[in-house]
Amino acid sequence: FDKPITKQFEFDEDVASVFDDMLGRSVPFYKQMLELTTSFAIKYIKEDSTIYDLGCSTASTLISIANHSNKNLDLIGIDTSEAMLIRAKQKTKAYGHNITFINDDILILDLNQFETLDDIFSYFNQLPKTLKVIAIIDEPKLAHGAYMIKKGFKSYLGKKTNKLIIKQVIKTVIDGNIWLYPELMNYIIKHINLNTDHNRSSD
């Protein structure tokens, strides 16, 4: 607190170095929440499961899961802060675990929490432009999915999508690409062709 404030807040090395202690001191029942999250994960994960922690900070959750699980797991932490990931790697090494870390900005957004398209894009348009957003929904529809992709979402999935496919989706989006399931891809291509043919016939 002796340092003058000279820049906008960010999760840099100064923050990362005290982050775990800060959470423990300032977030009510943080330790209990971590234990509860770990117990839920341990209850439902299966052998060779892949677990993503989006916004993993210093990897406390992933490390806790690794500490308490006797299964072979593929643990992946994603965070936008390089300083946080440096701390995460140090902690992981100290515990002797094998966790993959990715420096990126990604969000899985549940569209069912919104009532209208206006609500979705009112929220979506406030997100950082660098954020890669994957949409999930209870009942995916082709026209709806095509519109989401057109507006900037990187993928559009049903909530019942196979976990192995979700892993592929996240990797594809992290690599900077858009992931479409075949029916949605064919729908989009068909309507691109229809629009092209319509424009040609109008000339």
Brief write-up:
By secondary structure, the protein is α/β, with parallel strands linked by helices. The protein is built from nine helices and six strands, in the order αααβαβαββαβαβαα. The strands form two sheets. A three-stranded parallel sheet has the order 1-2-3, sandwiched between helices. Strands 4-5-6 form a three-stranded parallel sheet, sandwiched between helices.
**Main sheet specs:** 3 strands, parallel
- Computed Rg: 20 Å
How many β-strand runs?
A: 6
- Helix/strand/pairing category: alpha/beta
Distance between the termini: 68 Å
Q: What's the structural blueprint in terms of helices and strands?
A:
Layout: H1 13-16, H2 19-26, H3 30-44, E1 50-54, H4 60-68, E2 74-79, H5 82-95, E3 99-103, E4 106-110, H6 117-124, E5 132-137, H7 142-150, E6 155-158, H8 163-174, H9 182-202
Helix pairs in contact: 3-4, 7-9
Can you walk me through this structure?
The structure is a single chain. With 203 residues, this protein is α/β, with parallel strands linked by helices. It has 9 helices and 6 strands. It has helices spanning 13-16, 19-26, 30-44, 60-68, 82-95, 117-124, 142-150, 163-174, 182-202, and strands at 50-54, 74-79, 99-103, 106-110, 132-137, 155-158. The strands form 2 sheets. A 3-stranded parallel beta sheet has the order 1-2-3, with helices on both faces. The chain has a 3-stranded parallel beta sheet with strand order 4-5-6, sandwiched between helices. Strand 2, helix 5 (82-95) and strand 3 (99-103) form a beta-alpha-beta unit. Helix 7 (142-150) crosses helix 9 (182-202). It is globular. The protein starts with 12 loop residues before the first helix and ends with a helix. The model is unreliable at 196-203 (pLDDT under 50).
